[in-house]
Amino acid sequence: MALSPTASLRRDSPDLSYKKGLKRNILNRILTSLVGLFSAIAVLPLVAVLTYVLIKGGRVLNISLFTSPSTGLEGGGIGNAVIGTIIVTFLSALIAIPVGVGGGIFLAEYSGGGIFAQFIRFGTNVMSGVPSIIAGVFVYSVIVKTKIIFGNSYSAIAGGVALSILMLPTVIKTTDEGLKLVPDDLRRAALGVGASKFVTILRITLPSAFTPIATGVVLSIARAAGETAPLIFTALFSPFWPQGFESVFNPIATLSVLIYNFATLPYEAQNELAWAASFVLVLFILLINLFARWLRRFAAN
Amino acid sequence: MEKSVDGGFRILAIMLASVVAMVLLAILIVVFWGSLDSMGRYGWSFLVTSNWNPVKDEYGAFTAIYGTLLTSLLALLIAVPLGVGTAIFITENIIPLKIRTLIGLMVELLAAIPSVVLGLWAIFVLEPFIRPFLEILHRTLGWLPFFSTDPMGPGIAPAVLILVVMILPIITAIARDSLNQVPMKLRQAAYGIGTTRWGAILNVLLPAAISGIVGGVMLALGRAMGETMAVTMIIGNSNTFSWSVLAPGNTISAMLANQFGEADGSQVSSLMYAAFILMILTLAVNLLARWMVKRLSLKY
Q1: Full set of structural domains in chain A with CATH
Q2: A285 at B interface, C-beta within 8 A
Q3: Mean pLDDT over all residues of chain A?
Q4: What was the pLDDT predicted at B298?
């Protein structure tokens, strides 16, 4: 009586089922749960910070906060700091966007990867590693102490310049990389129908690379709006409303410096204003970030 | 006409590009120039003495330099396993893609939270929360010089934790990108010869992605050394040197943020000297990062 071939095969074949007790399987499960735990820990700070900012800031938030300046006295608000952040960030964008986009255009369109371009790329990388406080020290020494801007020392302009130093590397990099994504066929086609290089860049390559560049610029603006270190001794602080156009030459309040100043004071009222300012700042920055992400996805489709 | 516009635009672009190089050089020159006075007066002893006394005009930055290096290295020690572990978790197919994307997004958004807001959170939430644990640490391990003081509030330990929060997103994002770039073939080959998931991760994926990960870690180190606001708000700003991580300390950037605005005379110069040291440190770390990325990158 010979056994059927399948039965004999079944008897000799190894057991291929997953064995829970095997050393390497135990090790696998331990390591997998470990990195799962690590991910939970990594997510925790965002949740904790957002919860506290929303609860503590949201509790003190009301309309009158935005209609009164940060006198620091009872009934003070954060209205002037909201305006100040907008003004200083706008000034920095006004400097960093033209210079950065221009530099990026040079790197991507004109340089051809020569020594000078490598040097500029290297410089851009180094500059993005410069600590933000150093940008503040630099602008203080060059603009504030020398009173180079019509004899004004601390000013919104000085703050804007300091922030633009931090934005510049990001804007250059995103422009450079955005332009590199534009297919060369487009450039050749434009040159082929007789457009000059300037017209090609202005009408063809820049518009096709608009979304990646805009995304990068928007993200760098969000980052600049939250920066504090370069502002504490350039834009300084002011408890008053910015007065018209003159305000760019005077010290100006910003949300981030307000948080720094009021968080370290021993008074409850100021601490609450710091939380309210954090609420506004974080909401603003997260919305910009989500908008930039949406822009990127919108362009990808 | 068209030619001149073309040439003019080219020159404009070159000029705008050189702005970066000029600003960078200007920063180096201004900081170096400002610190010359202090360099001449204190020389190398500035780096190893720790008395900082504006009244007597005596300056030594050892506490701040030690604080800068200690806080960033400790933060790195905690953040690297957390960040790389998270990156592995969200690049493997352990949980559904949607949850993985969400975790990645949340870690990225953490990077967008301004440092000053994290500082505020550290003062009012984190520090009171961890103080009991630090007290236990002091009571049980107080015989070690590193835990020899009673935690009184702001100090090096909470500063390290807030630095971990700040550099975690950088490490996670770069490690995730490097792991994603490892070719699928390598993973399939590893599975094909019968290894397990973690056999593949530890022996194939991580070695293949190591150059990017190391680059990200060095970048995070540079960021941690230069980080100012959150650390300034929670480290306690004390120039008295202490071995204990539970005691208040200082970093170069915290010292600058606190004193630069009101300083004059030789204090300005000494702060510039400290700023110059910080610049050299971050520059060295960034250059080292680039060199290591080149050195370690595997050809596969």
Answers
A1: 82-253 (1.10.3720.10)
A2: yes
A3: 87
A4: 64
